[in-house]
Amino acid sequence: MEVVVTGIALISSLGESLETSWKNLTLGCIGIELEQPFPELAALPLAFIYKQPADVKQLTQLAVADALVDAGLEPPLPDCGVVIGSSRSQQAVWEELIKSKVESQKSKVASTADSHSPTPEFSETLPNAIATIAARQIGAIGIVSSPMAACATGIWAIAQGSLLIETGQCQRAIVGAVEAPITPLTLAGFRQMGALATTGAYPFDRHREGLVLGEAAAVLVLESAKIAQQRSAKIYGRVLGYGLTNDAFHAAQPEPTGRSAIAAIKQCLERGNLTPQDIDYIHAHGTATQLNDKREAQIIQYLFPHGVPVSSTKGATGHTLGASGAIGAAFCLMALRHHILPPCTGLRSPQFDLDAIVTPRRATVRHSLCLSFGFGGQNAVLALGK
């Protein structure tokens, strides 16, 4: 059963809507600034949506509402599947609860502190909370799933939603990922690993420093082509195929040969009845870390020796972890629609022999590929077509 995309919502450091984010991306804008949201930690380049860390619940509700409006749908939608994931989910809430508890114990006035700091509903602090929040918002009473696959989460969610429609379990699904990962623990963890940049994100650049954390919500409405056509819905593009594999190698480092990532790309192309020559644009994972960019460039060179235009948009949006693949899918669909390839923002001195897009490029785009490679060896690939 053919699966099409009829609605997109994107909230990022580039803008609070899909159109604004896309426009600013193609204008070469950068949503990254030097920030110090937590006094105990030094200032770092970060990609905030607002002036302070966003609330993941509110981001989810805004993105779901925007996606439905864009698709021309109104709740309740009881038969709509929900697959919305996050790699950090409610971590900020948990950190704040622990901090409050520690401060209360230190001051020995726990009862007073508790009276002024109401504890959130327990179910809304769980990792799957954003999916259940979205389900209540649209009145969905069917399948609800909340994947958590590190930086591969967004594409994994789109793949799961597509599979629900392909297998006839539902005719419509709202999918994507939401991240508000800028918390003291997340920053401290990535800093301890030596993965954070100090001035900005420069994917595939020989002077790249590491990743820049960013916030975002990217939600798509998927429908069977049949019901989309029946209601004369606007169609951004088709989900042609997807591939999901795991390195089974290391908790943080990618497997050096890239064999599992290569298998995911081949799996995706095979499912979509595509060959490497059919791909007109690749939205790379491109985290601007030393290991990821080197391995990803090698994989692209191996599978696409004929040369395919490539860009990573994390130099503009920051690395939004689990939401990054869903953002990439949204930008791929805009490239299909407008026949403009988005730039690899931050790339000044290319290290690898890729057809990297430095400035927006006009091109005929029929098929695009979106890559996501996450910690734990999670590999996710999505093929989209006009």
From TrEMBL:
GO biological process terms on file: fatty acid biosynthetic process
UniProt keyword annotation of Glycoprotein present: no
Superkingdom, natural source: Bacteria
Keyword presence, Phosphoprotein: no
Matching PROSITE patterns: KS3_1, KS3_2
Keywords carried by this UniProt record: Transferase
Pfam families in alphabetical order: ketoacyl-synt, Ketoacyl-synt_C
Ranges for domain Ketosynthase family 3 (KS3): 1-386
InterPro entries on file: Beta-ketoacyl_synthase, Ketoacyl_synth_AS, Ketoacyl_synth_C, Ketoacyl_synth_N, PKS_Beta-ketoAc_synthase_dom, Thiolase-like
Molecular functions (GO terms): 3-oxoacyl-[acyl-carrier-protein] synthase activity
Record family assignment: Belongs to the thiolase-like superfamily. Beta-ketoacyl-ACP synthases family.
Full protein name: Beta-ketoacyl-ACP synthase
Lineage of the organism: Bacteria, Bacillati, Cyanobacteriota, Cyanophyceae, Nostocales
